[in-house]
Specification:
alpha+beta; globular
């Protein structure tokens, strides 16, 4: 099945914005969006870079995106792994730490997409940055 053209265009734009490679891989009705080598907020996590995984499907951008995943070694500098990041799941032949931040139904089909979901991920990171 061919990947949604809107997702391909948004992935190219996200790559341009982040300066990171963005790979799209489809399997079992899901589309895996991997943003490689993302620079994480300074002083927030024990690593300064991680690959980031986002999940969508072939109805993109109509289907809501939710949560995000980073490499299992990514943990907060200021304490233990929070409960919302305690699950490890396996996708694309490797483990991922699920950061269970939720949009809580705030997805606007035709307005939201990969770029607004990336902004959501960055907002989550900002909330985890020690003050």
């Amino acid at each position: 099945m061919e990947l949604p053209r809107a997702l391909q265009a948004d992935a190219e734009e996200l790559s341009s914005i982040t300066g990171c490679e963005v790979r799209l891989d489809a399997s079992d009705g899901r589309i895996f969006v991997v943003v490689t080598g993302v620079r994480l907020p300074a002083g927030t996590y024990v690593r300064d870079r991680s690959d980031v995984l986002l999940l969508t499907d072939f109805q993109y951008p109509m289907s809501a995106m939710d949560m995000f995943y980073m490499e299992p070694e990514v943990q907060p500098c200021a304490g233990p792994v929070p409960e919302h990041a305690s699950a490890i799941e396996h996708y694309l032949g490797r483990p991922w730490r699920r950061w269970s931040w939720h949009r809580n139904g705030n997805w606007r089909p035709g307005v939201d997409g990969l770029l607004s979901h990336w902004a959501f991920v960055e907002q989550c990171w900002a909330q985890e940055t020690p003050r």
